[in-house]
Amino acid sequence: MKPLPFVVFALAAIVSATAEECAITQGFNPVYSPDGARIAFQRLEGGVFKIGVVELPERWRLASGCGDGAPAVASAPLSVEWIEAGPGNAAYPAWTPDCALIYTYGHDTETAHEAWKNGSQSGYGLRICEPDGTKRDLTRGRCRDYAPCVSPDGQTVFFVTTRGVESESASFSKAAATRLARLDLDWAKASHRGTEARSSGHDGQVLDLNHAEAQRRREAGSFAATEGARVDVEIVLDAPHGSNSGYVQPAVSPDGRFLVWGQLDDFFEGWRIYGARLQDVATTPSSSQSEMSRQFAPCRLTPASLTALSPRWHPNGRMICFTGFRAGDPGWGVWVFDLPSGKIRRICSGENPCFSPDGATIAYDCGGMIRIRPFGPGDEPDATLPDIREEDAPEAIAWDCKIEGTEKHLDISGESHFAIGDDTTMFIRATLNPGTQKDTRQFLRLSYAEHPRAIQLYASGGDLWFVSFDHAGKFFAAKSPLPRDGREAAVIAVRTPTRLILSVNGAAPSVVHTGGAIPLDTPQDLTAGDGVLSLEIGTGWPHELPKPQPLEVPQ
Amino acid sequence: MISAHRLSPKSLAHKSLFTLFALFAVSCPVPGAEAPGSFDVVALVDSLDFAKNYDIETPTGTVQVLEHVLLTHPTDIWWRDKGGGRMRYPSECETWPLSEVPFDPKRLPSEDIYGWLRLESPRADFWPLIREECARRGLRFGIHTTLEENHWYSPLASNWTLAHPEFWSWTRHGAPWMGCCSIFHPEVVAHKLEMLDERLALRPEAIMLDFWRNGSWSFAREYSAPALAEWERRHPGEPAPVHTDPRWQSMVGERFADYLRAFSAKCRAAGVRFVVGLPGIDDNDDAALRARIGDFGWRALAREGVFDAVFVLSVAMDPADPFGSTERIYRSVRDSVGDNADIYYPLAAYNMEKCGIGEYARRAKITEGAAAARLLALARDCGGRGVVLECVDFGNYKPEVREAIEQSLGNY
Fold first, then answer.
1. What is the CATH number of the domain that holds A405?
2. A10, A214, A516, B55: which has the highest count of C-beta atoms within 10 A?
3. Nearest Cα residue to B111 out of A275, A74, A120, A372
């Protein structure tokens, strides 16, 4: 392989900050190298996103942060080694354990119309730059593969992608989403052996595989480099709620057991951090959203009151840092979160934090500068935010509203226990006579001052629909087939702060992510249709449904 | 991420002085106003909608869009300057390529052709071309801008908004939202006016602020900390009410009206006509507009002379009496506005708010050409300075409608 020479620029970009923190260079998205000696980052310069690496002076690699409490003024500017400096844009650097860099790269010279007409394959793909400077494109296509992270064993790259996200409508305002994907790094590198980056003109093909196909290939032994210049991208999580929802910036825990990521459930929502056992993610069918939802519920780690994304792990494997914002903050901040205790803390203004490999310092960006600050005892998470994780929902308690027999109307105005806050899980347990007709018929309607049809159960087209709204008034519905042989339907419907869950006759539940439920403070009335044979409504988690499992991050 | 452009206290002070100075200009006559007697056909053009028809990132494609729009016989071309928070000119306030997805992780990407357009990149700066092409054809050239920046669509969220969560809008239930900012923060208004400066520098003859495209911003999203502080000052100890409370409407309405006055003053100081585009107008209380935005007393502002023209973008027409009810609404608008602003009535191909040409034709059981002719006549009879085609897309104005427009202009 021909080593690709790095271009070295000397930049006078060192400024002092405080005795405890220092500014390194202009840029953002800093990531420590595995040995903690260097930081990779991106910078916008001359209209191009570039990726560079700075070597840290010895005194900045240590727990004392910028060293001995003295102002961090460099005697000489730090040299920046440019990994990608154009043409094209490069962003989201991530280190492999052996000190290669993987990042997003694209150089799209076509107009959108040209690319559309020509069926262009020019988008944003993943590129690797080996320690010797050799570069290879790992993925490519008319898509966006970005925000990669590498598993601790260096085997797998997790990243977000737009592969397979189809436009759901002719309207352009309906199709914005990402999916979570993974790539076997050895296979990907091997498949490009002997080929350099796309400037060399190779025509490597990228296949998008669902889990079943990936598993089949793996078992058949055909999921390997023998297939030539082909890279197999496996989609492991679909967009959580279709359009205007998706993931960004996954991060694998140091022990390789957990994956955390930023997630947007709807444009009207904020970013939250979710997590899951890697084992669950890796075995989740992803051929359809509903299939996925039935098998697997990621654990939401941050509350609705906190906008949070860009998580990265502390080397102790129990803490993450992330970009966050909460009411009253002066702007984006660097937050730390101790997962086992649920304690959290905003430690400074800034974004895109990253722990050093020894956990003693945090690099982040603020005001267009990469900064480093020590992470010490005074920064330990100490506050508990309101937590509305589903696994913490109490056991079900039914309201006094049992209904039996024919249609019934209840005036529930003034019944404060019928109020459902946006942090409350409520359930409906009902037995229905679905009948045989396919016409729309209503079984249940709960009216509140906040919305006259706040919660509904109705049949339409042979399905049972469980419907509610988010706080922006957007409609959400989970649906499940009703028995078509005249049998009664035993229904469990649950509205959590973020999901609607519907199960009929014990079948695997249908799940819809709502992002954020409308708070219903002012009850008005309850109407049950004549197909309702029995009805219980209340708050809490019904015993019939298994609760989502929390991330059992070790203490 | 990189911080979006920040305003220094010095520049804020400078802008405040400028705004005060400019407010004196509100009552001054606007240069370039046409003599009475002409009848205008204003074509609103969103070039993005032509992305699959022409290569709109090239000068050739841009001119092709313009030529297609000319099939509707417009006298005025009003070009859209942004899609959500993504500008369609090289902007200092909303820098490219930071606005390009996926470089800010807070945006999600869109993979269809629209998600790959780079109309804010330096290579796509076609505003001088559009202005010159309009001048060459004897067309007036205006800018069609939108009230808010997000268009309900993550890829179009504004750089500045994403960089400043401390200014985000809040609902009464305390949910912050990255889609738009609260006008109770002076920095937000200053940013909006700074954006206006950029557009005025493109030297349009007029600029229209579109209230239909509000990006989900409304008085219901103004429960920010400074708004709540203002409420507390006015109503000590009383919790903020629901947004439909007249006192909340009044408080937010006052602040919003101040913003519109400042917007107007800047336009006037630059010799550019300020136009508002209002949807959901009726002859009673403009309930649809109030529900969409809030009650900011647009009729009083019109009488005050804040607007040079009012584009009625849609009306709450009575389906049982389409033309009669429309006439009553038009006359109500005329009575409210008087001679304080020009009025343009809708001639809409699309059926937003159920008052498109096709809806009139269906209700009145006439052809669309005949419906268009009646709407054109009604616009003239009710004192309209012209009609507004909202908006002209590829082939969406049928030949019979285009013919009615041409005949109407010829007959005048």
1. 2.60.120.200
2. A516
3. A120
- A166, closest residue in chain B (CA to CA): B111
Q: What is the structure's pLDDT at A390?
A: 64
My answer on whether A420 and A533 are in the same domain is yes
**How far from chain centre, in Å, is Cα A100?**
25
Does residue A193 sit within a domain?
A: yes
Q: Contact at 8 Å (CB) between B344 and B386? A: yes
Same-domain pairing of A420 and A295: no
CB contact under 8 A, A244 and B154: yes
Q: Does the beta-carbon distance from B151 to A270 stay under 8 Å? A: no
Whether A191 and chain B come into contact, CB under 8 Å, resolves to no
Contact criterion met (CB below 8 Å) for A456 and A465: yes
Same domain, A286 and A404: no
More confident residue, A501 or A295: A501
Q: What's the ipTM?
A: 0.88
Query: Which stretch of DSSP H or E encloses residue A132?
Result: none
The tokens for A220 are 């058949």
Q: Are residues A396 and A286 part of one domain? A: no
Domain with A286, as residue range(s), is 87-303
Give the chain B residue nearest A329 (alpha carbons): B166
Contact A362, A355 (CB under 8 A): yes
Q: What is the mean pLDDT of residues A47-74?
A: 66
Chain B CB contacts of A271 under 8 Å are: 106
Distance from C-alpha of A428 to C-alpha of A422, rounded to nearest angstrom: 17
Cβ of B101 within 8 Å of Cβ of A113? The answer is no
Domain boundary among A255, A288, A303: A303
Mean pLDDT of all residues in chain A?
80
Calpha distance A347→A383 (Å, rounded): 12
Domains identified in chain B and CATH numbers: 41-411 (3.20.20.80)
Q: Is A307 near chain B, with CB under 8 Å? A: yes
Q: Is B51 on the interface with A (CB under 8 A)?
A: yes
Interface residue B155 vs chain A (CB under 8 A):
yes
How large is the angle between the packed helices B246-269 and B186-200, nearest 10 degrees? 30
d(CA B261, CA B273): 13
How high is the pLDDT of residue B27?
41
Given a cut of 90, whether residue A279 has pLDDT beyond it is: no
Query: What letter would DSSP give residue B363?
Result: H
Looking at residue A214, which CATH number applies to its domain? 2.120.10
More reliable by pLDDT, A291 or B332:
B332
The CA distance from B78 to the nearest CA of chain A, in Å, is: 22
The residue assigned the tokens 């050895």 is A186
Region for residue B354 given its phi and psi (left: phi exceeds 0; alpha: psi -120 to 50; beta: otherwise)? left
For the stretch A413-450, pLDDT in tens is 888 888 888 778 899 999 998 876 667 888 999 999 88
* Structural domain includes residue A241: yes
pLDDT digits (tens, 9 = 90+) for B95-150: 888 999 999 999 999 888 888 999 999 888 899 999 999 999 999 999 999 998 77
| Number of domains present in the structure of chain A | 2
> Helix or strand or coil: residue A446?
strand
pLDDT tens figures, B245-299: 999 999 999 999 999 999 999 999 999 999 999 999 999 899 999 999 999 999 9
In a domain, A402, yes or no: yes
Q: Is A365 on the interface with B (CB under 8 A)?
A: yes
Distance CA(B95)–CA(B80), nearest Å, equals 18
Q: Which helix (H) or strand (E) holds A102?
A: strand A101-106
The continuous run of DSSP H or E covering A376 comes out as none
- State which amino acid sits at residue B71: L
